[in-house]
Amino acid sequence: MTRNEIQEKRMRGYFIQAASEILRSEGMRALSVRNIADRAGYSYATLYNYFKDVRELIFECVKVFMDEARTMIETERSKVAPGLPGIRRAAETYAMFFVQYPGVFNIFFTEKPNEIAGAQPTLALIYSFLDEICASDWKQIEESGSLPKAVISSKKDSLRFSLAGILLLYLNRRMAPDYSAFKKMLNKELDNILSM
Predict the structure, then answer these.
(1) What is the dihedral of CA 85, 194, 83, 96, to 10 degrees?
(2) Domains of the chain, residue spans
C-alpha cells in the first residue's frame, strides 16, 4: 500500500467514525456534512475529497454497523448449541443490538432508501442479514430432517418480520413500557416462531 493509499484510508476512517458516532447517538436527522467534518476535526470541504456525498458515507456506516452487529451476534451465538438454540440466541442478540443503538435501527428499517448510496444492494444486505448469520443453524436443521425446507423458509420470514415489528413498536414506545416487558414479548414471539 502506498503512502497516499494509507493516507486516504485513514482520512476515510476518520469521517466514517465521526458519521457513525452521530448516527448511533443522534440519528439521520442530526447528520450533516458540517457535523461530520466538525466531529472528525476537518473542514467540510475535505470530506468531499474522500466521499462523493453524505449518502456514500452513510452506506459505509451501514457496513460498519453490520460488522459490529455480526461480531456481537456471533460471539453470543457461539455460547450455545447449533440449530434452534443458535438461532434463538442470534435473534435475541440481534434485537439487543438495535435496542442498544436505536439510531442504527432507524437507518436500517425506517429511513427512506434514497438516503443511502447504493440503496438496493444495501437494502438486500439488511433484509438478508439475520438469515446470513443463522445460515449454518438453518442448514443443520434442514439436514437433520427436523423441518422441511418450506417450513424453514416460512420460519425465516416470520423471524425477520417479527423482530423488525417488535423492535419498531418497542423503540417507538408503542408497546412494552419497559425493557423487561420487551424481553417477555420477544421471548414469547421467539417461542412461537421457533417451536418445532
Answers:
(1) -50
(2) 1-51, 58-194
Residue with the three cell numbers 418450506: 150
pTM of the model: 0.86
Cα separation, 85 vs 194, whole angstroms? 9
Residues 23 and 68: their CA atoms lie apart, in Å, by 14
Q: What is the pLDDT of residues 139-150, one digit of tens each?
A: 999 999 989 999
CB of 62 within 8 A of CB of 145?
no
Write down the architecture of domain 58-194 according to CATH.
Answer: Orthogonal Bundle (1.10)
Report the topology of domain 1-51: Arc Repressor Mutant, subunit A (1.10.10)
Residue bearing cell 472528525: 40
Condensed to tens digits (0 to 9), the pLDDT of residues 178-194 reads: 899 999 999 999 999 99
